Amino acid sequence: MADQRLERILEKVKPKTFFEDLAEYGYLMQYLREFMWEKFENDDEFRTRMFKIMYEHSKYPVQELNYYYLFHFNNVLEQFFKKVDHNA
């Protein structure tokens, strides 16, 4: 229990990363497009990490982030409707 609390505290006080700084000022997506687009497009884990950083640190709306969450929300709704329709 104390270890979990310590981990949460350490998570909050760690220094920001370069990506977090870019997200905070609204430039992360632009940076990714210009310098890391291939990695962003092809590496699911990296893309998920970047979207999480944008979500947690961006002070500005990010269109791609909205699309990302809408896409996943749509998938969840499709699965729900298939299950409901299947049970009817």
Report on the structure:
The structure is a single chain. The chain is mostly helical and 88 residues long. The protein has one domain. 82% of the residues lie in helices and 0% in strands. The longest helix is centred in the last third of the chain and has 25 residues, at 63-87. The protein is extended, with a radius of gyration of 17 Å.
List keywords for this structure.
6 helices; mainly alpha; 88 residues; 82% helix; extended
Distance between the termini: 45 Å
DSSP helix fraction: over 70%
What structural category characterises the helix and strand content?
A: mainly alpha
Estimate what percentage of residues fall within beta strands.
under 5%
Order of helices and strands: HHHHHH
Overall mean confidence score, pLDDT: 89
Number of strands: 0
Q: The biggest beta sheet, please?
A: none
- Helix count equals 6
Structurally, how many domains make up the residues?
1
Multimeric state: single chain
Low-pLDDT residue intervals, each spanning 5 or more residues = none
Rg of Cα set: 17 Å
What form results from the Cα inertia axes? extended
